[in-house]
Structure formats: structure tokens, C-alpha cells
Amino acid sequence: MLNDDTRDKLIAAARDAARNAHAPYSRFGVGAAVLLTDGNVVTGANFENASYGLSLCAETVALATVSSMGRLADVVAIGVIGGAMDVTGIARGLTPVRPCGRCRQVINEAAQIGDRDVVVWCGGAEGDAVEHYLLSELLPHAFGPRDLQ
Fold this sequence. Notes:
The chain contains 4 helices and 5 strands. A 5-stranded mixed β-sheet has the order 2-1-3-4-5. A hairpin with a 4-residue loop joins β1 and β2. The termini are far apart. It has a single domain, classed as Cytidine Deaminase, domain 2. The protein has helices at 4-18, 58-68, 101-114, 135-138, and strands at 28-36, 41-45, 75-84, 119-124, 130-134. The protein is an alpha+beta fold.
């Protein structure tokens, strides 16, 4: 299930999602695509707000949608892309984008609930370069639901 085709499918879905980014302040569009155990993919795009602290990252939007579906324990992998937006509002750039610290913590919530080390694929808004990580590499010694027991 977690092969090159799956990676490419998630990165493509994240790129499609980034087209819906609402990022008028940072002008940095991000898309995320979450793979569930049954092969379904749920996407999200960043959603900024004039009150900057209320902005939501693409990963958080996608995972909140997964949670609202009652599927948080089913998260297997996530693809994330991002880049500066051009004048038409399309994210551009070749450099892979990694989840911010807050998003790593949100991904960790799903990882611990599902009792798996979530795969995280990171790409640029364009190009073929994709980085592969396990969440435990991006967020070692994470705090999560297990710590509250």
C-alpha cells in the first residue's frame, strides 16, 4: 500500500488541494492529502484569517475532516506540498515543504490513536523531489494521548 504509486497519488492530491488555499496574507499555498487504511484520501488546504492566529494549516484542515468522519485512527500516511503563490494564486516552487511543529503534533494525535508511525511525504508545489519521513523522525519523543493516561 505504501509504495511509489501511493506517494505519487498523495502528492498529486495535495497539489490539487493547494489550488484551494486561502492564503491572502502569506501568499504561501499548502495542500495536504491524508491516506486512510481503506485507501480513501482526504485533502485540505491552508486557510488563513485576518486575525493571523486563527489561520489553519492544510494538514490540520485535512486531519480535522478525517476526525469529523470518525476515522482518525485510520490515518496511514500524509502528503504535504507548498510554495509561494504566483499572481494567479497558484502555489509554485520546487523545494519540499515539511509540516510545521503544530501540524506534526496534530499528525501525532492520529498516529498515537491509530497506533502506527504515520508516513509523511513532503514535496514542492512543483517538480519531482519528494522527501520521505516517518512521523517519529519529524517529532521524536512526542507528547500525545498516551501521556494523559
